[in-house]
Amino acid sequence: MNGRRPGTAGGSARQIWSLGGGKGGIGKSVLAAALGYELARMGKRVILIDADLGGANLHTCLGMGAPEKTLGDFILRRVERIEDVLVETGFRGLRLISGASDFLGAANIKHLQKVRVLSRIRSLDVDVVILDLGAGTAFNIIDFFLISDVGLLTLVPEPTSIESGYRFLKAALYRRLRAVAPTEAIRQIVDAAGDRKNSLGIRTPLDLLNTVAMEDQRALEPLRREMAAFHPRFVLNQVRDEEDGVIGHQLVTACARHLGIAAAYAGSVRFDDTVWKSLRQRRLFAVDAPTSQAAEDVRRLARALSGGENLAIEWA
Amino acid sequence: MSVLRGNHYALMGIEPGATTEQIEKAFRYLIELYGDEALATYSLLDPGEAKQMRAQLREAYDVLREPMRRLEYDVRHGLISGRAPSLGGELPSAAFGAGVGGVDNDDKTGRPGRAEPFVLPEPVNGRVLRAFREERGIRLREIADTTKITLRYLEYIEADRYSALPAAVYLRGFLQEYARAIGLDPRRTSEAYLANSGIQETGE
Predict the structure, then answer these.
(1) What is the pLDDT of residues A6-21, one digit of tens each?
(2) Residues of A with CB below 8 A from B38's CB?
């Protein structure tokens, strides 16, 4: 999502993709697993990271038992290197760092711990790291989203999911804007915007810019620049209707017109019974039913995202 | 939610040079985007705001889909420049600017004077020509006087009464005279009118 990567010695992840969604139960983890699997089949070296620190389950999607070592062990320094919590998935080219479901409070890791994790993720020697993020808009989740090169917002074509998605995008953008706010007064305005019932009447990032302009004209430019550099990408999951496809484009248009966010539409994955049938047996549908519609869609998505196709900011 | 600001084109998310087809497409897409049951906007706009957006879009669409209303709008908003791509390629803005509502001009008569002739977007028919003429405040009688074309023929041209008009070879000349009198490019206007009318040349 941004070009700011900490300097790292040795290997370096070529790309970090993250899957956020704001809302739980929309098939995000299964999608992350399938994307990782398809990328690995394309010959990429891939590491999946279950960054859902409170409710890790990516291993289940891959048909694995809960790994003994998890990201939590690294965060709590029970192991020294992040590589020590890497486990093989049984699929060539695809490895996993499991989530920290084994200890409470992991979802609230401290700032320094987070900085260390983020910098080590960046230093992993692979082609693609895929971060499966938890639900919600907590800073920890957003910070993972913001360090990624490709920020994917997974949504299903339902009002609740889309509402959560917008909330997630706004929270992520405000987090970025806060970091570049040139003065304390502007920082306070950005913080206020994050509160949905703020007294300044700020409902959207565009409102925020107007308020900032009234306070301090000079602060506008850095905020505008930061907004322009924010390029989240929508992925529509569980699409049932031909017409649902148009929603992807509509989301992009609505973001541009009413939030001032230059999003893009990465693609959709059709609803497919094979997905939950496989999941019930704790297996990955892309493995069980490689010719299913959903597997085809994920393959197309993986190709598009890794090849740079279809990533242009689209209007209608 | 702030109601979107900007001109009709910005509202429709298109360039001032947009084609008729692009205008249609944008309108249909956006009306759906702001529909009552639209997933993408329901949590961004309340029902009243969505309704207002739809009303604004319809207003913009009604202007932009009518060539003459669009031209007038473009001029009034300073959107016509010499290089605007959509409307026939070459748009000497000064020419059309003269005499059209709200635009300053140094010609007190409000007539096209020495300025370059204007090219109308196709299709060109009698209705479009008449609207253009009326915008410039020129009466048919004046044209008849200066061109020596009978008033009746001028009326038929504007009424698209092709069967009552003389043969194409003469009509072409009338059209060129008429076009020149109201500040339009004579050759291109006559060609466009004849092409739209479907009148066949019987030999030259």
Answers:
(1) 433 346 668 999 999 8
(2) 250
B2, A163: Cβ pair inside 8 Å?
A: no
**Annotated domain spans of chain B:** 8-65, 93-197
Superfamily of domain B8-65: DnaJ domain (1.10.287.110)
Close Cβ partners of B80 (under 8 Å, ≥ 6 residues apart): B71, B74, B87, B91, B93, B96, B97
The 8-class DSSP code of residue B85 comes to S
ipTM (interface pTM): 0.82
Can you tell me the mean pLDDT for A30-41? 96
Torsion of CA A272, A168, B2, A211, to 10 degrees: -170
* Residue B149 to residue B157: CA distance in whole angstroms: 11
Q: State the average pLDDT over residues A149-160.
A: 93
A195-250 pLDDT, tens per residue?
A: 888 888 898 999 999 999 999 999 999 999 999 999 999 999 999 977 777 899 99
Sign of CA dihedral B46, B48, B49, B53: positive
Helices and strands in chain A, H and E counts: 13, 8
What amino acid is encoded at A159 in this protein?
P
Taking CA–CA distances from B26, the nearest residue in chain A reads A316
CATH fold, domain B93-197, is: 434 Repressor (Amino-terminal Domain) (1.10.260)
Q: Tell me the Cα Rg of chain B.
A: 20
Domain A1-152+273-309 has CATH 2.40.50.100: no
Domains of chain A, residue spans:
1-152+273-309, 156-271
> Among residues 152-181 of chain A, which lie with CB inside 8 Å of chain B?
157-159, 162-163, 166
**Can you give the pTM of this predicted structure?**
0.72
Are the CB atoms for A238 and A27 separated by under 8 Å? yes
Among B4, B25, B33, whose Cβ lies nearest the Cβ of A250?
B33
Chain A interface includes B38 (CB < 8 A): yes
